[in-house]
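quick one, 128 residues, struct below
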Amino acid sequence: MVTQITKGIKISVRTEYEGSFFKARTIHFAFSYEITIENQSNHLVQLFSRHWKIQDALNDSTIVEGEGVLGEKPIIKPGEYHRYRSGCVLTCPYGAMKGFYRMLNLSTSKSFKVIIPSFKLASPFALN
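---
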């Protein structure tokens, strides 16, 4: 698990290899990740957007941006957390993801960036 704290918001990431499959004569490798967003600050915050950079071992990268996470814009009270699970597919057995969330401090109406630490995506056989 990797973690990082930005402005009192702790991001923890756990990953899992889900398997491989063929599509259009190309092998694909599926990964899931679980992210916990913990509000360790004294302020009520809301996540309103995300930015991901997904990179595989062949140096192909994809940028993914959008509102909220899984269609939600969670409000997180001080001392509480929001957890969700998502996934991605690569065309090689090893890669990484990193990014950031845009959050809104509901006490001050100011937005701020929370770093999502870089985490690896690796099938077990790719590590040997």
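The mean pLDDT is 95.
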